[in-house]
Design brief:
alpha/beta; single chain; Rossmann fold; about 20% strand; nine-stranded mixed beta sheet; about 25% helix
Length: about 325
């Protein structure tokens, strides 16, 4: 079963949180309780990278809002020093035809943790070779795919994978997640989704690596889906339908009647219509008001202003 979102009927759900569709949560903006972590053996990358080359197109600061969201959502993940997290690595998967997104993320995250190790992974050999001149003792570029090119005793705390899975078939979504989970420390995160060409709007899954054994429909392998994030910098105004075009691969083909994600967008559109008077005060105020209205429709929306005022709407769990 791919995700619960594809099979549950919203009419039978008393309160609409992503745990009952395809996600499980922690309260956003809080650190995860430290647990003792033993060294986890994982399957090392085979010689041949698993996956397909992306188009590779990118733009300066395309993922700036993704980086800023991570810093706002769980900054403690970057600075953890317990056990294997102390020397763990941030992965920029599928960085594109040049190294700019990896280098930009490195600059932002190292303001918080100057010695943070960052690995840019690309399936295209020429792109890796072009990025190597920018490598140093804490910035790496390697050839790889979903079978991450990790060395012995290297561990991952965070994966950023944007505009990667959108080119795949939906059937490839779960296997890709399961493969990537092999490299991530328990408590680590992956943020995976799609943006428009300049990153002004994007939508992403946030999934947490867990070793919990349960049959939750909100899981794929060792990943528990924690939240679905909608992000905008308001430069294109505010239009709910714009987000439908950049949904992650597990959702984008399901915005049809009878599917929970369709019901969600219909509710959000109604909320936007009901709060349309706020347009007079600007797109940001309208966005915030629509989110507050959507929460009143029993969708679990994080209403913290530190997120909404910056253009991040988080659909989460308990």
């Amino acid at each position: 079963m791919l995700v619960a979102l594809l099979i549950l009927n919203k009419q039978n759900i008393p309160q609409v949180g992503l745990d009952q569709y395809c996600f499980a949560s922690k309260p956003a903006g809080r650190s995860v309780t430290s647990v003792k972590i033993n060294c986890m053996p994982h399957s090392r990358a085979s010689k041949k990278p698993e996956g397909q080359p992306t188009r590779g197109k990118t733009a300066s600061n395309r993922l700036r809002r993704v980086d800023n969201f991570i810093l706002l959502y769980e900054p403690s993940l970057l600075t953890r020093t317990d056990d294997l997290f102390a020397d763990s690595i941030f992965i920029d998967l599928g960085y594109g035809f040049d190294a700019r997104t990896t280098l930009e993320s490195a600059a932002r995250f190292r303001r918080m943790k100057p010695n943070l190790k960052i690995l840019g992974v690309e399936i295209d050999k020429d792109r890796v070779e072009a990025a190597l001149p920018f490598a140093d003792d804490k910035t790496f570029f390697r050839l790889g795919g979903f079978n991450l090119p990790m060395k012995e005793n290297e561990h991952v705390h965070l994966i950023q994978a944007f505009n990667v899975l959108r080119q795949y078939e939906e059937k490839d979504f779960a296997p890709a997640y399961e493969r990537l989970a092999q490299y991530v420390l328990p408590g680590g995160l992956m943020i995976e989704g799609t943006s428009n060409p300049f990153g002004s709007i994007w939508c992403a899954n946030v999934a947490r690596k867990t070793l919990e054994s349960d049959s939750s429909l909100s899981k794929i392998g060792d990943w528990r889906f924690e939240a679905l994030i909608f992000s905008t910098n308001f430069r294109l105004g505010f239009d709910v339908e714009e987000f439908q075009t950049i949904l992650p691969k597990n959702l984008i083909h399901h915005v049809i009647k009878g599917e929970p994600i369709y019901d969600f967008f219909e509710a959000w559109k109604r909320s936007a219509k009901e709060t349309a008077s706020m347009k007079a005060y600007g797109a940001k105020q309208w966005f915030v008001a629509s989110a507050e209205s959507l929460a009143q429709k029993r969708y679990r929306i994080n209403l913290h202003r530190k997120f909404l005022s910056k253009g991040y709407m988080i659909w989460e769990n308990d």
